[in-house]
Amino acid sequence: MCPLIVHVSHAVHSLISQAKTAHVHPSRSQSLAEERRGTESTLLKSSVKFPQSVIVWGAMSSAGVGPLCFLRSKVNAAVYQEVLEHFMLPAADQLYGDADFIFQQDLAPAHSAKPTSTWFKDHGIPLLNWPANSPDLNPIENLWGIVKRKMRYARPNNAEELKATIRAT
């Protein structure tokens, strides 16, 4: 049997997390522009070189979902530890109370940094061993897929509308 499956089966509760970057694409659709040279119409696709974006962290488990955290900067070890302290710990407390849980995260540099590993040890939180380059194994990807489909229909035009769409999902 796969060691990952054996390891997970021994965990009573597991909390699965991930951060994603979402972009605003105000020019998602192609627009028709008339060229003044005769009556010829040309289909033009506009693009935005640097679209507005937000970085959002979330966590889920069989007991429910934790609060979303919108980050203001790229995630390094210090930023990630703040997320863990102010969002993950309260989510785990809300979902599991005093019960033990195992935490799942991908192998992003901020997650595997030595200070982050020390943070988990200091807080007595065991980590699920996670294979590298395996996003297809992460159940939270299904949740992010739902969020992405909602964003496609909502068509947010700026970062605040994007956040509101994500929160509403």
Secondary structure elements and their pairing?
Elements: H1 3-9, E1 14-23, E2 31-34, E3 41-44, E4 53-61, E5 64-65, E6 69-71, H2 77-96, E7 102-104, H3 109-112, H4 114-123, H5 140-154, H6 159-168
Parallel strand pairs: 1-7
Antiparallel strand pairs: 1-4, 2-3, 4-5, 4-6
Brief characterization of the structure:
The chain has 169 residues and is α+β, with helices and mostly antiparallel strands. The protein is 39% helix and 21% strand. This is Tc1-like transposase DDE domain-containing protein.
Structure report:
With 169 residues, the protein is an alpha+beta fold. It has one domain (3-168): Nucleotidyltransferase, domain 5. It has helices spanning 3-9, 77-96, 109-112, 114-123, 140-154, 159-168; strands at 14-23, 31-34, 41-44, 53-61, 64-65, 69-71, 102-104. Strands 1, 4, 5, 6 and 7 form a 5-stranded mixed sheet that branches. Strands 2-3 form a two-stranded antiparallel sheet. A hairpin with a 2-residue loop joins strand 4 (53-61) and strand 5. It is globular, with a radius of gyration of 20 Å. The model is unreliable at 1-11 and 27-38 (pLDDT under 50).
